[in-house]
Amino acid sequence: MKLLVCISQTPDTTAKVSFNADGTEFNAAGVQFIMNPYDEWYALVRACELRESLGGTVVALNVGPAANETTIRKALAIGADEAVRINADPKSAAFVAKQIAEYARNENFDIIFLGKETIDYNGSETGAMVAEYLDLPYVSYASKLELAGNTATLERDIEGGVEVLEVDLPFVVSAAKGMAEQRIPNMRGIMTARTKPLKEVQPVPFDEQEKAVQFTLPPAKAGVKLIAPDQMDELVRLLHEEAKVV
Predict the structure, then answer these.
(1) Alpha-carbon distance 177 to 180, whole Å?
(2) pTM for the whole thing?
């Protein structure tokens, strides 16, 4: 079985968000970057579990500059057998999806995994675009995946219940909470990650159809006002005059 796991590098969840002077790019100065948690905890770990039970190979793929290689090595430490970095600065979900699809097109992967979204953009777009480029079935927000022969059974949470789907290999899936449990790289994994292959691939040409014009921060939240229990009249006044329904 040949499995591809697409991983992204994102700012740490505690990073302070700011932009450059003209608001066109994220300010990365002093920011610690991590592997996107949905890619790491759910997509990558489930792929490794399937490889461990059924045999095969797990390939971790990242679209990004050389600075991302520390994050890629973590994927190798967790359990990926090899890694590929497409040497490009990702500017849009469509660009990333095109690069993933063109690499995967002739590699005959059985399953292409992604996290359900990245924690910086929260777009949930890339998986569907990869599937469209490759003309493959796509299952989004899957919380469970089991294989029997050439058929996968997946579950995903929907409003009021759980949806169960069956799909034949190959296909693309985005992984949500429940797909697997987080793994912490052990010392052996960290040491072997240094010697596992990490191949650099050049990007294919792509005509961008969109670009970010400007990023802005939301308005600062007002401070909390505490009202003493015996000042109900003041509470009523504030609710009438100052409270806003969002």
Answers:
(1) 7
(2) 0.86
